[in-house]
Amino acid sequence: MIAWWTSREPSQRWSQLLLMLGGLLMTIYVMAPFSWFVLTSFMHEQDALSVPPQWIPVRPTLSNYLTFFDPSGTRAVVGSRAAEQTLPSMLNSLIAAGGTAALNVLIGAVAGYGLARFAFRGRGTLLAAYLGSRMPGIALIVPLYLTVCTYGLLDHLSALVITYLTFTLPFTIWLLKNYFQAIPRSLGQAALVDGCNWWQMFWHILLPAAAPGLVAAAMFAFMTAWNDYLFAVILTSTIASKTMPVVVAGFATDVTTERTLMAASGVLAVIPPLVFAFAFQRLIVQGLTSGAVKD
Fold first, then answer.
1. Low-confidence residues of the chain, pLDDT below 50?
2. Is the separation of the CB atoms in 250 and 81 below 8 Å?
């Protein structure tokens, strides 16, 4: 640390020191609430409600997590119904978010490539219409609910997937359009000269080259669908289609709130997106930045 300090000019020392302090403060600001949330999940309910509050569990326990596997066990809780539904709802969230991400990549890749490579009348208007379709969810909920009821899709995961597509696909198309524009045209032309047809060129050449953009688009769609509460609570009513955010909210009732169970379920809800993000971290960062500038 001393060697680093003495090897730099005074102006560089203080500017870098301020940047480091700013980064440290931001890290504390972001991580402190989540860390407290994780610690609460290992507390007994009475410890979580103690005054003054306990920041670190004095009597750590795994009972909150075990309740999800045996809700009818020794601990009778007000939110036992929500505890029974936590693991099935996580599976529903994975299906809805995974389906949304897959369809975003499939449709967005074809649409993004067409908009990036072909010049046609109305392309700019079409792109503007895509962005204009991303209206606030609260403005769409009534007509969307009536449409879902009309087609008999209420309380179906397919209704959630279709709904999530309406406000994730426009961003995906824009992202992938910029990414395909950054890929040299000569790459596809060389494949066509070598005897590939359009589909072979697109599938075997362009899609692997666009892998970072595809992963970034899939991550955005997955996270948007995974975190949604508004559409899920309106369009679902049974555990056949309820997602994780809806069930987690069930731990707060008009009688009481099971804070430790809510914290434990929240920790479980964070695990799949974190695994996804860490597994594809390099591709996500590359995909979000590669299409931002042109050579």
1. 74, 76, 291-295
2. yes
pLDDT value of position 14: 73
Instruction: Assess contact for 44 and 59: CB atoms under 8 A.
Output: yes
**Given the structure tokens 């879902």, which residue do they identify?**
148
Closest CA to 68 of 78, 54, 82: 82
Half-sphere exposure of 108 (CA within 13 A, CB side): 32
- DSSP reduced 3-state for 181: helix
Q: Which domains does the chain have, with CATH numbers?
A: 2-69 (no CATH), 80-290 (1.10.3720.10)
Give backbone dihedrals phi and psi of 257, rounded to 5 degrees, phi first.
-130, 125
> If you ran DSSP here, which 8-state letter would residue 141 be given?
H
pTM: 0.82
| CA–CA dist 90, 228 (Å, integer) | 13
263 and 64 in contact (C-beta within 8 Å)?
yes
| Contact of 225 with 160, CB cutoff 8 Å | yes
